[in-house]
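Design a sequence for this backbone.
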């Protein structure tokens, strides 16, 4: 299932969400214009290497993506869910929340695979936090998703709690499966996603502002 949009309009201009998307796009454009050798160094310097943990890299890794599909899928989810969460938290609180969720996700993935020398990149941990916050703040919302079932393709509207719940359970199951297999290689950072989501649930409970009338 690919999310396309939710059904709740923004009540304020989501300036932080837009700025975060713009920053990610600019960094991605910068990195793809680098020569191939410089791109590899860019990932090693700005991605988070668990075996050589760095707080600076934990921050910069949130703005680096492995490819266009990685970047577009992450930023689409940030756009769908981020504007509403920013509405409820306020701009500065949302920014702090987003960055803290991303750092927590990086710590979780480092804990899960501490000897990995493959750089961890992407905003997905922070965006998982946004998705967790959205679930808590808007439990009755609905999401339009593009569904692929063999030869069947359609756009359907489903409860956000179902879409986000399925997504979270998948991250947990795949994370446990990878840990049990001791793969130790690259791939999707499932534990970062799961941790970001849980931090998002907790952060939303602490940082949300009263609901509008």
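Sequence:
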């Amino acid at each position: 299932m690919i999310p396309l949009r939710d059904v709740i309009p923004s009540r304020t201009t989501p300036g932080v969400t837009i700025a975060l998307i713009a920053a990610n796009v600019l960094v991605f454009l910068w990195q793809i214009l680098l020569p191939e050798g410089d791109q590899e160094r860019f990932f090693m310097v700005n991605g988070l290497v668990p075996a050589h943990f760095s707080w600076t890299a934990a921050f910069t890794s949130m703005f680096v993506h492995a490819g266009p599909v990685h970047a577009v899928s992450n930023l689409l989810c940030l756009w769908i869910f981020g504007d509403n969460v920013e509405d409820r938290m306020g701009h500065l609180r949302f920014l702090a929340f987003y960055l803290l969720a991303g750092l927590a996700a990086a710590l979780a993935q480092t804990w899960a695979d501490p000897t990995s020398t493959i750089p961890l990149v992407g905003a997905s941990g922070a965006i998982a936090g946004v998705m967790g916050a959205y679930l808590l703040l808007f439990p009755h919302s609905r999401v339009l998703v593009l569904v692929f079932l063999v030869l069947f393709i359609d756009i359907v509207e489903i409860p956000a709690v179902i879409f986000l719940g399925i997504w979270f359970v998948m991250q947990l199951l795949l994370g446990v499966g990878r840990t049990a297999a001791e793969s130790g290689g690259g791939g999707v950072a499932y534990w970062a996603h799961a941790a970001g989501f849980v931090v998002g649930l907790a952060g939303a409970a602490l940082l949300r502002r009263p609901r509008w009338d």
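The mean pLDDT is 90.
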